[in-house]
Design a protein that fits this description.
67% helix; mainly alpha; single chain; three-stranded antiparallel β-sheet
Length: 409
């Protein structure tokens, strides 16, 4: 494989790091979601025991207490992880700068010799900021519960079932809010660690680094705001842009020294061979899927996948990726192995219409690796299953539901 700029080597190594970064985040998010599910289930169950005003007032107090316990446990899960992730970012930046220097072969002093210090004030700020967001989340939910319950009391509709349904509805509205906060603040910790390390490098070496906006520009899940900025280089002290740029932003800052984002001469490219090792097809597709945030890389020809990873972003290449996506969707739908109903009655026709819609929707979410949609589709299909289907039809719905469940992470 060949690269045209030193930053291309940096991007290659950063993409290798991304899988580990995602696993770090997912491990924390899994713990938060597990605690959320446990507490929210208890809150919904508790709402079924109200039949009068006194009990409803007691319910509000209980719900506030239970939600407070949940927020406290989330804080405990996150506490300490910011420092760990902050250090993880700094370690990664050390290696990325070393990678660039290895290519450039101009500096004799390796970055690992630069003194390494922690900025405790930064860590304290990140933790405080995140926990302020959690407190705001807690206040928002409790306020909604209080307002909805008060409205039901005034209207005389506060029976056991309606109160329980109301609690379930309010909690589901912000079902993934704590997850979003965790992702947002872990990303903030990572990018803060990156920028601190770049500042330290500049002070120690006298070489002023810049920052390069890196992200998955051609992923369908990347927002238009980030797409326009990915690949741009900024002065280190330019604070016009911050990362993460928004909730669930996956973009990161990468280091750039003078000339790293400019075309290299061919002799220098020939000498810079530390990343030009042989890759298996599996590794090539894995890197492509990781870079684009997808699950259908293997539907491209391996030579096309290699050309994309080498920087081919032409309309022809993007058209090939679009075709691969459609092939993956068709293959995933076939893998469901759910046959249409052959009957001519109304419910057989309704079944075929509904099932075709959901098979297509689920297949798209799976190949795009859209976890948010998969979680929503799971609940939506469960709702569809309450309709008066036959036993055989219900078994087919259950099969599709199992496919969604396996694809969720």
């Amino acid at each position: 494989m060949s690269y045209e700029r030193i930053i291309d080597y940096i991007i290659e190594q950063a993409d290798r790091d991304d899988g580990k970064n995602l696993q770090f985040e997912q491990d924390i998010i899994f713990k938060i979601e597990k605690e959320r599910d446990r507490v929210f289930s208890r809150m919904v169950a508790r709402g079924a025991g109200c039949i009068n005003l006194t009990e409803m007032q007691e319910l509000l107090t209980v719900l506030e207490t239970m939600f407070g316990i949940y927020i406290t446990k989330v804080k405990r899960i996150l506490d300490g992880k910011f420092t760990e992730y902050h250090k993880h970012a700094r370690d990664n930046i050390d290696r990325l700068i070393d990678t660039g220097l290895d290519v450039e072969r101009k500096f004799s002093r390796p970055v690992k010799e630069v003194k390494y210090t922690y900025d405790k004030n930064t860590i304290d700020y990140i933790q405080k900021h995140a926990f302020e967001m959690l407190s705001g989340y807690e206040y928002s939910i409790i306020s909604q519960l209080r307002a909805r319950l008060g409205d039901m009391i005034l209207k005389g509709t506060a029976d056991r079932r309606s109160v329980q349904n109301m609690i379930q509805k309010v909690l589901n509205v912000d079902y993934s809010k704590a997850k979003e906060i965790a992702q947002q603040e872990l990303s903030r910790a990572y990018n803060t660690g990156t920028l601190e390390r770049l500042h330290e490098y500049g002070v120690a070496t006298g070489k002023q680094p810049r920052k390069y906006w890196h992200g998955f520009k051609y992923s369908v899940k990347t927002c238009e705001y980030c797409k326009k900025r990915i690949g741009k280089t900024y002065d280190l002290d330019d604070n016009s842009e911050t990362l993460p740029a928004h909730i669930r932003c996956r973009c990161i800052w990468l280091p750039v020294l003078n000339g790293w984002d400019e075309p290299l001469n061919r002799s220098l490219i020939a000498r810079a061979n530390m990343l030009q090792t042989g890759y298996s097809e599996e590794q090539i597709y894995s890197r492509l899927n990781s870079r684009l945030g997808i699950n259908y890389g293997e539907y491209l020809k391996v030579e096309d996948a290699v050309e994309y990873l080498e920087g081919d972003r032409t309309p022809t290449m993007m058209a090939k990726i679009a075709v691969a996506r459609e092939q993956a969707i068709d293959s995933t739908k076939a893998d469901f192995n759910i046959q249409q109903e052959m009957g001519t009655d109304a419910w057989s026709k309704k079944f075929n219409t509904q099932m075709n819609f959901w098979k297509s929707s689920v297949a798209e979410a799976i190949v795009d690796n859209d976890q948010d949609l998969l979680w929503k589709y799971y609940d939506a299909i469960k709702a569809v299953m309450v309709l008066p289907w036959s036993g055989e039809q219900l078994a087919k719905w259950e099969s599709l539901l199992n496919s969604v469940d396996k694809a969720r992470t």
